[in-house]
Amino acid sequence: MQGWNSTSSSPQEDIGNNLRLLRERSRDLYMSGGLAAGAIKKNQSNVLGSGLSLKCQLNYRMLGLTPEQAKEWEDRTEFEFSLWASSKVDNTGLNDFYDSQRIMLTGWLLNGDSLSVMKYTDRPERLNPYRLRLHLIEADRLNNPEQHSGYGPAFIAADTEIVEYINLSNGGAIHNGVETDPDGRVVAYWISNKYPNSLIPFNQPMRWARVEAYNPVSGLPNILFVMDAERAEQYRGVPYLAPVIEQIKQMNRYAEAEIAAAIVNSFFTAFITVGDGPKNEIPFADSIPEEDRVKLPIEDRLASYEMGPGTINVLGEGESVSFGDPKHPTAGFDTFMKAMAQLAGASLDMPYEVLLSVFNSSYSASRAALLQAWRSFRDRRDWFAHDFCQPVYETWLFEAVATGRIQALGFFNDPVRRKLWSQAIWIGPSPGQIDPLKEVQASERKIANGFSTHERETAEQTGMDWDSNMDVLQREWQKRRELPVTPDTAQRGGEQTNADEN
């Protein structure tokens, strides 16, 4: 181990000093496609899908409600929230709440963290009676002001280097745009009006706005900061791809080299050596179309040779050409890339079968891979809902109760009752099923033995709501009873009656 030279310091130094380069390389890998893009998109589709949906979960006993009253309140609240969430609620006017979830999650995966400023419009829109809006901001714009005096604005040029750490006169500090008090508690965020590397908007100096972390009146957050911390006193996140950035880059280079070699190896090109003997006055027809040739002047083109399918080049006097046998693509390419994908999947906490969407093993092995992946997906869904979806819902509910659109007794007087009125779960896409029959039978057994509930298994298996399903089924059975009785329908009705009795 004598050649292993390693150093480590505080999270602010280990992370903050390298964060800019990690973000740039993480985005580049994602935009280049391949394994990195696959890992990001797998998280998008499995953690969120089309977006996490609200399901209110009132503790009606502690609130002094009947089950019927609680169900009526939940239905009303879910409808009102859907009215706001399905509207264009972000600062650009292009995305609804469910689109904003995807942007925030992707921002965390690519940059290590993402944030949203909670804002209110001057007046509600015609089709959206609520004023709450989300201003989504990418992680780059959360950075330290270059000059700092008190809490006033600061101005620098776009190409000025920004420091990662600033000591404040009150004993606090600013860590890559996150301001803390002397005890290390986050109290504010510093957001710049432009990206540090960007000239847009043109002819405007770079300035910062200080946004307090919490509203001193309502106690609600002014900024939602989504980050998966790994170390104590860590204020900025690390990109999801950080552990495998170098590995995936080298894999991409290897794959590109194999593709290029295979293309060259597929060309059938002949070369004719011209000596001192007589020459054929009839030239060969051009096999490469004019639009596909290398763009060179006519005098340079005569001295250039191109390779292509069925191409014939005439060499000059004394010239000859010879080729080695590249033997591409390499026979072990698939095995090597699979092994590298397994290592990358281990670092990303995602089995390579899921990472590559390849399930060639047995049922048990494939199901084990899915279950392992879904543990990670559920963990990310839970903390994302806790850091983003739930605070958004609680802020929206505050406005809904304050404006009288939702009735919640004691909401503003008792923090316990406010918490009880705000309880909810967030439903996302269900895990994939290799054998749906076995999965359903397992759910039935868990419900029968009290290990789970109809509501939970419905959400896990289909991503739907059990109560809504019951309402639809009841309406469907009522319609079936109203149908004319035929031998076929009577037989099916008898079978259903027997099933109900059993």
Written description of the protein model:
The chain is an alpha+beta fold and 502 residues long. It contains 16 helices and twelve strands. It has a five-stranded antiparallel beta sheet with strand order 4-5-6-7-8, with no helix packed on it. The termini are far apart.
Give a quick summary of the entry.
The chain has helices at 11-16, 19-31, 35-48, 60-63, 67-85, 97-111, 245-266, 298-301, 333-347, 352-356, 363-402, 415-421, 436-448, 454-462, 466-482, 487-501, and strands at residues 53-56, 113-120, 132-137, 165-167, 173-175, 178-180, 186-192, 208-212, 223-227, 269-274, 311-317, 424-427. With 502 residues, the chain is α+β, with helices and mostly antiparallel strands.
Rg of Cα set: 31 Å
Widest sheet: strand order? 4-5-6-7-8
The number of distinct helices, counting runs of at least 4 residues, comes to 16
| Main beta sheet strand tally, sense and closure | 5 strands, antiparallel
Low-confidence stretches: 147-162
Decide which structural class fits the backbone.
Answer: alpha+beta
Shape: globular
Distance between the termini: 70 Å
Helix content: 40-55%
Helix and strand sequence: HHHEHHHEEEEEEEEHEHEHHHHEHHHH
Number of strands: 12
